[in-house]
Amino acid sequence: MKVFGPKQVWFITGSQDLYGPKVLEEVAKDSQQIVAGFNQSSTISAEIVYQPTVKSPKEIHAVCQLANRDENCIGVIMWMHTFSPAKMWIAGLNELKKPFMHLHTQFNAGLPWADINMNYMNTHQSAHGDREFGYIGTRMRKERKVVVGHWQKQDVQLQIDDWCRAAAGWHESQNLKVARFGDNMRQVAVTEGDKVAAQIQFGYEVHAHGLGELSEAVNSVTHAEVSAQLDLYATEYAVADDLFRDDHKLKMLNNEARLELGMERFLVAGGFGAFTNCFENLTGLSGLPGLATQRLMSKGYGYGGEGDWKTSAMVRIMKVMSAGREGGTSFMEDYTYNFGATDQALGAHMLEVCPSIAAAKPELDVHLHTIGMRCDVARLLFKGKPGAAINVSPIDLGNRFRIIVNEVDAVNPPAETPNLPVASALWEPRPNLSVAAAAWIHAGGAHHTAYSQALTVDNIADFAEMAGVELTVIDADTRIRQFKNELRQNAAYYGLAQGL
């Protein structure tokens, strides 16, 4: 079984009855072999499911309806082995609600020069069959990914996998529930937004719950459950020398274990995949959850600080998309800069950075938390793993949503930080901090991000297309003048696309 479990991508091949049964038998055989090859490939993360060749408007319409109804179908790959007149696809494409990818390939890589005849040409004519299909997709203004090349090539399969992962993320977005414990941080603009518009655009639901509800779940955790959780902590982390001997620190660790178990109990019972909290809303809790939030993120939950439900949802979606890949995904914040020979950004948060991005085994300790509620809180301390990464920020512009991505390179810190009591990651934005930060600010990017070393811009681009939202990328080629023009052009395009 592939990494997305029972979730599947359907493979639909287009043809027509014109060619007769012998050609159609070969079309079916070739399609089945392609699907088998994809499922045997370690590059493609989702199970690909063969569907019988469609040859008429009725068959096309029927398979698109079936895809819509199948809960395990997260998307569709379409390929025209022969010529498939595109008017046949209109009703089906109008009906299709799942994302689709257009694979422009052919079964054989090379031509049999000595034996090629018109029968071969008629059977293997995706070179113009896919162009006919491509026209109707464009005419109907259907967003889709087009992948071109022989199906056995590594780069083709990598593009297919990128899209499959985005389809898994889109499926998660359609079914995700975000729990908000408390409200947004007061007076902060970017963490606010239109939750109804977000549900219409992305599918996910955002539900507010009072701290009293969460406190009940936390207080229901037993001493035996807390004790077992402490034993687990001792095996998974490098524990500070005096943590289990110091009565005060041990009490703070007990608080965190109870918070983790209580929050998870609440999230599971409510079917939530992501959550937010805020240091200004902690009534009834022992403190702002630190270790508890870090561990819940490491289990796959999305998180956003200060009530940031958009970033919380994005973290969860990206965690789903990155299943089975090396590298982690975390809630993050650009906290402070290191200006020098190469300008750098130090990312962190008050407590909540996911250990999935750690370079080494995290250390568990207790330190003073001074914002919102002044108290000692247990947390994991570590430095982020070096390597390529992306920072992703979904924002609400009032009349539409925008997703901003900055490619960055995480690096090892030049010195130790013995007095910094939080997890952190140090990175160098592409093309450099000066251009990247200016572009980020022009685009309206938030101070919170979803940080990932498991995904690339291509994954987020595919997701943004499925969602029908603007994507703005800051990378090694970014130039401020062109970037500002792109933002202006995007504003015009998305404004016109929405209609009056």
Automatic annotation (TrEMBL):
UniProt superkingdom: Bacteria
Keyword DNA damage recorded: no
E.C. code: 5.3.1.4
Family statement drawn from the similarity comment of this UniProt entry: Belongs to the arabinose isomerase family.
Protein's recorded name: L-arabinose isomerase
Recorded name of the encoding gene: araA
Binding of Mn(2+), residues: 306, 333, 349, 448
Role: Catalyzes the conversion of L-arabinose to L-ribulose.
Domain L-arabinose isomerase central: 177-324
Species assigned in the record: Thalassotalea mangrovi
UniProt cross-references to NCBIfam families, sorted A to Z: PRK02929.1
Domain L-arabinose isomerase C-terminal residues, every copy: 328-470
